[in-house]
Please model this.
Amino acid sequence: MCPKLHTPMYFFLSHLSFVDLCYSSVVTPKLLENLIVEDRTISFTACVTQFFFACVFVVTETFMLAAMAYDRFVAVCQPLLYTVVMSPRLCFLLVAASYAWALVCSLIFLYFLLMLSFCGIKFINNFVCEHAAIVAVSCSDPYLSQQVLFIFATFNEISSLIIVLTSYIIIFITVTKMSSSRGLYKAFSTCASHLTAITIFHGTILFLYCVPKSKSSWLLIKVASVFYTVVIPMLNPLIYSLRNKEVKEAVSKLINIQLFCHKI
Model:
């Protein structure tokens, strides 16, 4: 609704918001149901479906954050060429590639998961259908499925983090060379919100998958799963709006217009 915000950064942010909404919606309904009913199981079909869509949206967010890091790199390090480099076509391709790669990864995970035998299992005692929770009830050797997940997850995490770290290292070097305090503040405010979101998201993912898979770690895994599927999507709007002057001004203007129209 605000033409001032029709820029590449907010184009990516709108898709990040959509992805957050989608993958929290995959998990939250079952979580809320578990708070009010005694039966805290989930059907096998629903669990596999939840796992598939959760993978799609989590992988999409991983690369969406990487694309936003590249956008911040261009904005800080090449401000005069920003509108040329971050053209609408490039922005569309980056977003489309994130969705497409996430779908490919999720289909591969699902294929190798469904190759396992589950011996008539109909329900799983869980609400967040992590890969580990599903293969735990398998009657066949899950080694191949686990290795495929590990290889793709490692590739996704390392490749996205390389993009993010490279972008921010160059940004940091560029910022340290700025003599103007105003330029420093603008560069910091441009990157602070995104860097906060990346730290929380990747920090939780790395913590979750670095936890040893023992019986005592299952509660910790469930808590971490809830954090990155429910809490982070709730935090992102606050992180990007409360630390962003342009968003606060746009929202304030919108509220004032609505109040004025209501009085009329």
In short: The beta strands are 42-43, 123-124. DSSP finds nine helices and two strands in the chain. The radius of gyration is 21 Å. The chain has one domain: 3-263.
